[in-house]
Amino acid sequence: MSIKNRYPNQDRYINLLTDFGFKRLFGTEPNKELLIDFLNVMLPPQHTVQDVSYKNNENLGNTPLDRKAIFDIYCESKTGEKFIVELQKAKQNYFKDRSIYYATFPIQEQAVKGEWNYKLSSVYTIGILDFIFDDHEEEPELFHIVELKNQKCKVFYDKLKFIYVELPKFTKTVEELESHFEKWLFLLKHLSDLEEPPEVLQEVVFERLFEISEIANFSVVEQEAYENSLKYYRDLQNVVATSREEGVEQGRQEGIEQGRQEGIEQGRQEGIEQGRQEGIEQGRQEGIQENTIAIARSCKQQGLDIETIMAITQLSREDIEAL
């Protein structure tokens, strides 16, 4: 594989994680065979898609805030299945809630006026995530299929599925690619790094991908649109990276302070314990001393000579004479 250094305006192929790249790859009628091929590597085998038609994704109700970080395509198969394909660039509060919410639009639009038996077509939300779920950071799995199940983990409803891929977890090199699925993930992450198509990616469907992704084939307007999209992508990357670094630094400072407080508390507890032990020992020694003096005083009162008292109590002559 030939991968070059990344310099502005010198990429041969577009970055597929930009709005422009994502829509060019998956969002136009002439290139829908690429979308179909991608859907079929993401979906379970029994849900193979033969053809799709594009639908107006404005009906999904996306907010302006969503559209800054989420690029989506809404399509439908000939057999009626609905597909929302999203590229999510950054973590978002209540992301899972949002996915559920937008999946309800393709469900609601299936309603018909008058008599209706409520039979629904399947709805799939497919998310390409350029981040890792907080609750999945320690898990190696990058591919997730989510559906409604009961308390016995049996599928309750099989017509609503959420399929997510956490791209940052995909780290294979081109030499390590084994499946069509892995080849797609590699291209999503690394297309703009390539100077030419690697041998392992020289398949018919990918030949079309490389052709439509070559920047030299763009019109002036397309190149300008792509540059603006690339700039926004890089700005967003910088914001995310800065936020991550600030979070790490804040966590480090909080960790230092917590460690300091815990150290003080531990030291206090150890000091209390040490003082307790020293107090016990001191009291024991003082008790022995007082008892020895009492014995020496009693011996002296009984008229024993000093040498005998010294032998019994181990006190010095001066201590005994001073009694």
Summary?
The chain has 323 residues and is of the alpha/beta class.
What does this structure look like?
With 323 residues, the protein is α/β, with parallel strands linked by helices. Helix 7 (220-301) packs antiparallel against helix 8 (306-313). Mean pLDDT is 82; it is low at 2-8. A six-stranded mixed sheet has the order 1-2-3-4-6-5, sandwiched between helices. It starts with 18 loop residues before the first helix and ends with a helix. It is elongated and about 125 Å long. The protein contains nine helices and six strands. It has helices at 19-26, 32-42, 64-69, 95-108, 180-190, 204-213, 220-301, 306-313, 317-321, and strands at residues 52-54, 70-77, 82-88, 123-129, 143-149, 155-166.
| Strands, total number | 6
CA radius of gyration is: 37 Å
Main β sheet profile: 6 strands, mixed
Low-confidence stretches at least 5 residues in length (pLDDT < 50)? 2-8
User: What's the number of helices?
Assistant: 9
Shape: elongated
**Element-by-element helix/strand order:** HHEHEEHEEEHHHHH
Mean pLDDT value:
82
Amino-to-carboxy terminus distance: 99 Å
Given the helix and strand composition, which structural class is it?
Answer: alpha/beta
Q: How much helical structure, as a percent, in the residues?
A: 40-55%
Which strand order do you get reading across the main beta sheet?
1-2-3-4-6-5
Percentage of residues in DSSP E strands:
5-15%
